[in-house]
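User: For documentation purposes, I need each entry recorded in a consistent format: the amino acid sequence on its own, followed directly by the corresponding structure tokens. There are two entries in this batch. Please keep commentary to a minimum and don't merge the entries.

Assistant: Recorded as requested. Entry 1:
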Amino acid sequence: MKSELNQERRGLLMSGYKLVAAVALGALLTVGVSASAFAQAPATHHKAKSEMHTYVIERNIPGAGGFSKEKLKEISQKSNGVLKEMGPDIKWVQSYVTGDEIYCIYRAKNEDLVREHAKRGGFPADKISEVDTMISPATGK
């Protein structure tokens, strides 16, 4: 009797595992993951791609706020050219031009890439700060 009860429990447990597996697979397929991705998973482990970090760069450039549209376009083109040469490990998000400074937001795998971009482009990088956390008005809700 005890043996039959244990077999019945094992059967229910296996049915539960199958149900969980079926639900999980269904959820993955719903969000667009192909079942073939599981069948083709490599046998060896690959290094995970290193994470991109966000940096704020302060560039002291006297008179930057008075630069013409043409001058800002020239600076942007120079920056874009250097970024293209450097590859996908660094990206320019946007910049804010004030009186004598430009504050730039970059995404990069490390701070050295941000410094290298400044060096190659001939841009000052007076202060580079990695962003720890981002907040917005939604944070306070």
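Entry 2:
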Amino acid sequence: MNKFKFGMLSIVSAAAAVAAFGLGAQPKTIADGVYTEEQAAAGQPVFEERCSACHNADFYKTALSNRNNQPLVFLFEEILGTMPMDMPGSLMDEDYQNILAHILSITGFPAGEEPLDYYGGSMETVVIIPPES
């Protein structure tokens, strides 16, 4: 994904998140089952191949705690634009969604009925909360 496209998506995502949170509706949190078990399972082998050498569940527990009350889309876009470190943005968007689902799974957040869907906007109204210790 080129930098212009990524930048524009970030701006659009931020605006949508602000609009959604500003409407007074109670946002979902990552504890509300915002990914599917199938996504997490699909993300596991990619995570193990491309992520686990540098990152584990404890790393992500800290990362999630440090992003308390931020929209999930912000974390997704950070991962999308910076990982894997040796080739940022080199995976398919679906792989990044599945990896994020796997991250939520290994940090103790439950699966739900609807998949994470960046382009469908499902991450924009989901708030990060710290995992339980």
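Summary note for entry 2:
Residues 3-127 form a domain with the Cytochrome Bc1 Complex; Chain D, domain 2 fold (CATH 1.10.760).
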